[in-house]
Amino acid sequence: MGNRRRSGGKPITRRSVVAGGFVVVGTGLMLTESGAFSRTAATRGASVGVGSDGGALLGLDVAPLVGVGLPDEPLVDVTNNAERALDVTIELVDALGSESVSPAETSLQPGGSTTVTATIDPARDGGPDALAFDVTATDGESLSVDLRRRTAIPTLNRSIVDRTRNTNVEFDVQYQVRDVPDFDRLELFVENVSEDDHNLSESFTVTDPEGVISYPSSGHDGGAEGDTYEFTFEVFDEEQGSVIFEQTTRVADGESDDDDDDFGDDDDPVLETFTVTDNSSLEQDYAQFDVEYELSNTENFGWVEVTFDNQNHSWSDQTVTSEDEPTGSVSYPESGGGGGGGQGGGGGQGGGGGQGGTSGDPYEITVEVLTESGIPVDSGTVTTVADGEDPPPYVREE
């Protein structure tokens, strides 16, 4: 993707993190993360301060947010307000293997300052105080200061649902942006990167912090099944510009991948339980199920998707939706259905309104709960055989 690049320089707003000035005579002080001393040591007569008054020993101006997947993101401005030179060391707490700060060590003359940047791995968990770092300053003789500070890491939860069938490529990209205080937009670039003549790509820009993007917008890429697609995500903050940059690939084969993220907040709907009534008939050779579900916390509820996955005959698979809450029910096959016709024209509507030609087949029945914006936040699965015997119910684990 040679034509893709992240935005250049970006202004950042900062929260000032410095502590009040003090005069220390032959003692040590403690400065906590909330603003008191963590550890300072000085000989008699040494002036020690770490404060918000701008005249303290060590000024720390911490960026309110550090981007992920981007090189050299601003982390903290360090200023030497002392009357002597200081050697300063900055280190990430519990750094992942690919993470780093620059410069990790520096010497500052009185009045000197430097901007420390960080490169943060997208695998790091996000949150308001997700990134901690330590700052140590010393004059090499009589004075030393140790501080710990924290700042926010933005979060992009994403899931790529591969809906490829019959050589036609389709993806649903579910996304959720968190911990970006002034979210502006998400840009998604999808490109077929296989070495063939398909030359397929499309760009999307969305301004909602969560939702679903369907690729391609035209419906499907015909004849591209088995090709590799690259997905590039970039999230922008109004103040800081680009704050998340991630790339991943998928082979268009109808199977979803393992690196998808989990979605869900405390205010999202919850699947409490569901039961499956098996009305299948071995004698008349058809499968028929009724599913009843119960939800809680439904303020942000959108709909339920119930998938009936026949492990032997994929042509009989169906997904049935329901917007009923807090309780509801669906039936398989859906009214007026009967599946995809089956191999060789078989597998139509069976006796009793069931799916013909599938009795005795194993099924995975999954109930998935989605929010108003189409984000899946909870699910449960029951495995059964279409033989007229009800499987045990699904019950949420506390």
Automatic annotation (TrEMBL):
<feature type="region of interest" description="Disordered">
    <location>
        <begin position="249"/>
        <end position="270"/>
    </location>
</feature>
<protein>
    <submittedName>
        <fullName>Uncharacterized protein</fullName>
    </submittedName>
</protein>
<feature type="region of interest" description="Disordered">
    <location>
        <begin position="316"/>
        <end position="398"/>
    </location>
</feature>
<feature type="compositionally biased region" description="Acidic residues">
    <location>
        <begin position="254"/>
        <end position="270"/>
    </location>
</feature>
<feature type="compositionally biased region" description="Gly residues">
    <location>
        <begin position="335"/>
        <end position="359"/>
    </location>
</feature>
